[in-house]
Amino acid sequence: MLELTDIACVRGERPLFSGLSFALEPADILVLRGSNGAGKSSLLRIVASLLTPVEGRIAWRGADIAEDPDAHRARLRYIGHLDGLKGALTVQENLLMAASIAGADQNNVGPAMEALGVGPLRHLPARYLSSGQRRRTALARLVMSPAPLWLLDEPTVGLDDDGVERLRRVIQRQRDGGGIVIAATHIDLGLEETRTLRLGRS
């Protein structure tokens, strides 16, 4: 479903990786490992078509994503380091706005909040949330607006044990539905049969 061939990335004249190739099928989970600066975030941004590789090709079902980057972005959900919440809006308002932008069913907002444990906070402005609560709210967008490809950059940052377990469950549901997940994380998500790609030196 997703295939990377001979991908090379250079940031600030510094080569991060080259000749990187792999293919993922429905229900695959790929965990990215590596030290800080190894290129995990850059690889996720390349797959999200937010960053252009200096070499290589990325294909979705055989078609080069560069031919229609907008269509590719529509089929993925990317959660980066920034939570992307507006402080003046409540948790629910932030998610309703995100649903509108993504063209998602707004009836999914309630179940998404419950899945990540932020339902009781629905009327609280985002500026009052803790870092973990902000992360849970950002991750709720995954549940609210389904997509076949999830790209997660350190998704567990700020989460307590309950938050990590909730994230594990939503990732498992994504897998059960045939979706693909690529996650850069330093912790064990407690998922079986994941693949690992280590960037940089071990």
Could you explain the architecture of this structure?
- The chain has helices at 40-47, 69-74, 91-102, 109-116, 131-144, 161-176; strands at residues 2-11, 14-24, 29-33, 55-60, 63-64, 76-79, 149-153, 180-184, 195-198.
- The chain is an alpha/beta fold.
- The strands form two sheets. A five-stranded parallel beta sheet has the order 6-7-8-3-9, sandwiched between helices. Strands 2-1-4-5 form a four-stranded antiparallel beta sheet, covered by helices on one side.
- A hairpin with a 2-residue loop joins strand 1 and strand 2.
- Helix 3 (91-102) runs parallel beside helix 5 and helix 4 packs across helix 5 (131-144).
- The mean pLDDT is 94.
Can I get a quick summary?
The protein has 202 residues and is an alpha/beta fold. The chain has six helices and nine strands, in the order βββαββαβαααβαββ. It has helices at residues 40-47, 69-74, 91-102, 109-116, 131-144, 161-176; strands at residues 2-11, 14-24, 29-33, 55-60, 63-64, 76-79, 149-153, 180-184, 195-198.
Work out the helix count: 6
The helix content, as a percent range, equals 25-40%
Trace the largest sheet across and list its strands.
6-7-8-3-9
Gyration radius over CA:
17 Å
User: Based on the structure, what is the oligomeric state of the protein chains?
Assistant: single chain
Low-confidence stretches: none
Structure class: alpha/beta
Profile the largest sheet: 5 strands, parallel
